Amino acid sequence: MTAMISFRSVVDPSDCDFLGHMNVSKYFAACSDGVFAIQAEMGLTASDMRSGRKLSFAVVHAESDFRSELSSGDAIRLETSIVAMGTKSITFRHHLIRSEDDAIAFETLFKCVMLNLETRRATDIPDDVRQRASAWLEKDADGA
Q1: What is d(CA 36, CA 90) in angstroms, rounded to the nearest whole number?
Q2: What pTM did the predictor assign?
Q3: Residues 6+ apart with CB under 8 A from 26
Q4: How far apart are CA 12 and CA 119, in angstroms?
Q5: Residues linked to residue 9 through DSSP beta bridges, in sequence order
Q6: From CA 119, how far away is CA 128, in angstroms rounded?
Q7: What is the DSSP pairing of strand 75-85 with strand 55-66?
Q8: What is the pLDDT of residues 50-65, one digit of tens each?
Q9: Are 91 and 111 in contact (CB under 8 A)?
Q10: Average pLDDT of the chain?
Q11: How far apart are CA 136 and CA 38, in angstroms?
């Protein structure tokens, strides 16, 4: 497995701005939801964040490209993979795709740090999270 579907939705009329397409903030909201979904698959669930280890990924840098407009009624999905994994950080690649024609509407890289929610400082990614995350790590052209 390289990418997971981390979010699905249909563009609601309230998601659109006066230009008639999905507002920029909604693209990032979908990606934020996607990070929480894949994070839960890695073993950091909402209840774990509240009363367990109190760890979560937090975005510290984003690079984004808007490729195709999305309109009210478009079914969309977010596919998420991991580009790089360090000691305290992970870089996620998100593709927001219009389901009707599989067009990539938006692509972004989110560099995230593992944030200790009590100290508000970056901390090491736990070994069990790192192990589960490896399932979504992109392979290079040589398969490494």
Answers
A1: 13
A2: 0.91
A3: 11, 15
A4: 38
A5: 76
A6: 21
A7: unpaired
A8: 888 999 999 999 999 9
A9: yes
A10: 94
A11: 9
